[in-house]
């Protein structure tokens, strides 16, 4: 069965959102959040269509949209440990969105965000900045010398 116009638009926007999620974004970037909201609306409309796709396909779209929504919510958390914990509970898509992908883009985004949050936690714990250099406000400590 041929995909409807709505389904094609949903897949196109879903691919765009997955690409945006994989890129490093400015914290003030608002587009991805709006696009994910539009994806939710399109998904609801697709579920009510008379000529809707198979339920497995709709479930996969839902999984990917929920993943993107959860990822956006995790990014809003304050501490990196909370972000990492929230990221563990996200379920990426199981099937690639397009035929060009070998690995689902949501799985790639999931792994990238996990690595980013782990790196943030490490720098918080060790007191280093993103370049791996110790922060300037950390006191330099010298080894104790014992008198013999």
UniProtKB/TrEMBL annotation:
Region spans: Disordered: 116-148
The keyword Endoplasmic reticulum is assigned to this record: yes
Lipid bilayer topology: Single-pass type IV membrane protein
Keyword tags: Endoplasmic reticulum, ER-Golgi transport, Membrane, Protein transport, Transmembrane, Transmembrane helix, Transport
Subcellular location: Endoplasmic reticulum membrane
Domain of life of the organism encoding this protein: Eukaryota
InterPro entries in alphabetical order: Vesicle_transport_protein_Use1 (IPR019150)
UniProt cross-references to Pfam families, sorted A to Z: Use1 (PF09753)
Family (UniProt): Belongs to the USE1 family.
Protein name: Vesicle transport protein USE1
Organism of origin: Felis catus (Cat)
């Amino acid at each position: 069965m041929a995909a409807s116009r709505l389904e094609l638009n949903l897949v196109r926007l879903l691919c765009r959102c997955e690409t945006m999620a994989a890129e490093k974004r400015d914290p003030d970037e608002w587009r991805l959040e709006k696009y994910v909201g539009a994806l939710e609306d399109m998904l609801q409309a697709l579920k009510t269509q008379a000529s809707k796709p198979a339920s497995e396909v709709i479930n996969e779209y839902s999984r990917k949209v929920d993943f993107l929504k959860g990822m956006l919510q995790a990014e809003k958390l304050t501490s990196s440990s909370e972000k990492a914990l929230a990221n563990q509970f996200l379920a990426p898509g199981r099937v690639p969105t397009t035929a060009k992908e070998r690995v689902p883009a949501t799985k790639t985004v999931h792994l990238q965000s996990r690595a980013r949050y782990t790196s943030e936690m490490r720098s918080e714990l060790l007191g280093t900045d993103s370049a791996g250099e110790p922060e300037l406000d950390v006191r330099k400590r010298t080894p104790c010398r014992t008198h013999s």
